[in-house]
Amino acid sequence: MSGVHHLPWWKQVVIYQVYPRSFADANGDGIGDLPGLIAKLDYLKALGVGALWLSPVYPSPMCDAGYDICDYMDIDPLFGNLADLDLLISEAHKRGLKLLMDFVPNHTSDQHPWFIESRASRANSRRDWYIWRDQPNNWRASIDGGSAWSWDEVSQQYYLHFFLPQQPDLNWHNPRVVEAMHQVLRFWLDRGVDGFRIDVVHCIGKDPTFADDPRCLAGETMVRINDQPYSHEVLRGLRRLVDHYPDDRVLIGEVNIRSTAQVAAYYGASDELHMSFNFPPLDAPWDPVVFRLCIREVKGCFPSHSAWPTWALSNHDNSRLRSRYGGSLRRTHAAAVLLLTLRGTPFIFQGDELALEDTQVTAQTRVDPGGRDGSRAPLPWKINAPHGWPGKTPWLPFPPDVSTLAVEAQEAIAESTLGLYRCLLSCRRESEALSIGEWEELPSHPQLLAYRRHSHSDERIICINFDQVEHAFPLAGQWITQISSDRQSEKELFKGTVAAEQAVILRRRENHHEQ
Q1: What is the pLDDT at residue 344?
Q2: Residue in 254, 357, 358, 501 annotated catalytic
Q3: Is the residue at 371 inside a domain?
Q4: Which of 20, 67, 15 lies closest to 44 in space, CA to CA?
């Protein structure tokens, strides 16, 4: 593509979320690991993604799937060691893939040496590395929905935790905490990591008055409503640090506030986050009105090229998109076209390229205290059991239709979901319009969502039919169906109709030899 070399890499790629525990197991213990991921890098390269976001692999008691960290500068033996991580960075870079780590700044594990010292006594030098009070307020924690305060019998005070009691919140008003966490970022950046996805970054700042919040009386948790000015000051410090490194290192924030305008504020004046996740599409039902409003809102809140949007339809905390869309393969395929043709950086959650559904979890197989195991099931590589997971039974049951949806099965079928994703990613890479072009909504039937992507002379038109019946979509001029979500009529002249729950990418007919 011409004219895009000056843009940072993170504006031009599709990012793939790797949930390491469920990706690929190299040592046969039933848990995915870094050597397993290294062995599958060629699969990810062939898929066409440009960067990998690695969910936490740090040492942890695993009360919250590794988001309770007891050492920020090491690798949990479950996943390997630092040498494996260094090899992963090297092998990814050899293939032109960037690697992002998950940075969890709001809280540590209660087994972290910092907290062990902090709770030892009120006089301990690390006491104010965390947040302690004599009396709790009404703030509510996420995951279990209970009080955000827990009593510590040893030091006779309450400590704050926006998540589980095993995840005490750090006090970012303490300069020593700031410096310690900056050192964590330097440690990984110096090893060659290309950036970070920052967990619940908006939670870092806390209301300094510690006043009761009336919204908590209605059952809201602080993770959904906490939005304090001090978080922006912290982010500006992180951004200054990262910007001192070469090669466009990136900060991507999880701002788990269901307001696009509030999320946009975390970009600052191009001096805070480079990108932030926008959550309304993750909540959206299969409805053109809802998606149309989501996209319009992003366009309104991110008007300049300095505030670059992101798009995600699944992640490790949410039900898989196919499960949310009623198990429909047609909707899942149409949603893939939508995700990969919007203006911004798309994120694919591992397994969505296989159309996986949530696994069925019972009381006996449940692991996550928040009930989020469904989307975290092991990725099936082989048709036959044990589906590429030799050794111990994997830590969670496989998703439904595991043999049919396995990578091995889908690689043999061009019309499979995997085949569709590979075509979409190739199309996006080769089209300046789709990768970095402008977005313009087009008039259409209410059950259609249609838009134009354009950059210089490159142009594509995308139309998604959310209805269960065919609808007309008349266009001036002659257009070729470059990709269709149901793989029908591709490379043929577009006849002006979009089939039920079908999505199409159209390009102008270039010469009379095309159909």
Answers
A1: 96
A2: 254
A3: yes
A4: 15
Name the phi and psi angles at 241, rounded to 5: -65, -50
| Confidence at residue 363, expressed as pLDDT on a 0 to 100 scale | 87
Q: How far apart are CA 506 and CA 146, in angstroms?
A: 51
Structural domain boundaries, residue 135? 113-160
What 3-state DSSP class applies to 430? helix
pLDDT at residue number 128: 98
* Residue 417 neighbours by CB under 8 Å, 6+ apart: 329, 332, 333, 336, 353, 354, 355, 405, 410
Kindly report, residue by residue over 357-390, the tens digit of the pLDDT: 999 999 889 999 999 999 999 999 999 999 999 9
Output the pLDDT for position 449: 98
CATH number at residue 132: 3.90.400.10
- First-to-last CA distance in the chain? 25
| Torsion sign (Cα): 10, 13, 17, 20 | negative
Element (H, E) at 484: strand 479-484
66/185 same-domain check: yes
**Residue 296 neighbours by CB distance under 10 Å:** 12
Task: Let me know whether 408 and 466 are in one domain.
Answer: no
Q: Does one domain contain both 380 and 277?
A: yes
pLDDT digits (tens, 9 = 90+) for 40-93: 999 999 999 999 999 999 999 999 999 999 999 999 999 999 999 999 999 999
Our answer to whether residue 470 is catalytic in this structure is: no
Distance in angstroms (rounded) separating the CA atoms of residues 37 and 392: 18
- Which residue of the set 33, 199, 353, 373 is catalytic? 199
Q: Are 458 and 437 in contact (CB under 8 A)?
A: yes
Same domain, residue pair 274 and 423? yes
The pair phi, psi for residue 231, each rounded to 5°, is -60, -35
Domain count for the chain, please give it: 3
Strands (E), 264-399: 275-276, 310-312, 345-349
Active site residue 117: no
pLDDT tens readout for residues 281-311: 998 999 999 999 999 999 999 876 678 999 9
- 268 in helix, strand or coil? coil
pLDDT of residue 510: 82
CB contact at 8 A, 74 and 59:
yes
Res 156 pLDDT > 90: yes
The full length of the chain comes to 515
pLDDT greater at residue 6 or residue 170: 170
Helix axes 229-243, 175-190, angle to 10 degrees: 40
